[in-house]
Specification:
Arc Repressor Mutant, subunit A, 7 helices
């Protein structure tokens, strides 16, 4: 069975159920409809056919990841708007700039999510706070060698994700 046929069958048999499940998680039908569609788009992007013995469990797993991403974006969006509310009116960016910034923040958050907490903290201390490796080691209570390894791991992780996005 071709990928499209397999996904079409899943869609026909389970879309309504998935939309209902997502609506119960998200609290609104519009977001549920978007994420239900995104779930099936993800399946269409797979290289191998989808043949499942428990299709609803599989769809729920894919959709749950999308729900988590949705909530993360919503929280990031709220935090950004709250930060903007504290700016003097003369420094508030245009609507277009805000959208570009939100997209950039979402990409950064997605990259950082894949890092272990200590690696993420060391990386952020270096990149955002401008601390040197020695200062990071002191602040985190770890060795200089660990800081160097954490930052190298973070940079490698970001490098890999950057090139995955280009594929």
């Amino acid at each position: 069975m071709a990928i499209n046929d397999s996904v079409h069958s899943l869609y026909s048999d389970h879309h309504s159920w998935l939309h209902t499940w997502l609506r119960s998680k998200l609290g609104n039908s519009a977001d549920a409809a978007d994420l239900a569609q995104d779930t099936f788009v993800r399946l269409l992007q797979r290289r191998e056919p989808v043949q499942l013995t428990t299709p609803r469990a599989f769809l729920r797993t894919v959709a749950r990841g999308l729900v988590i991403d949705h909530w993360r974006r919503e929280e990031l969006h709220r935090a950004y708007l709250e930060a903007l509310a504290h700016l003097p009116e003369a420094h508030v960016p245009s609507v277009e700039t805000r959208e570009v910034m939100l997209q950039l923040l979402e990409r950064i958050a997605k990259m950082l999510d894949g890092l272990k907490p200590k690696v993420r903290r060391a990386f952020l201390l270096a990149q955002c706070d401008g601390l040197g490796h020695k200062a990071i080691a002191e602040q985190m209570g770890i060795s200089l060698r660990s800081v160097e390894r954490y930052i190298a791991d973070a940079l490698y992780h970001c490098y890999l994700l950057r090139y995955e996005d280009e594929d």
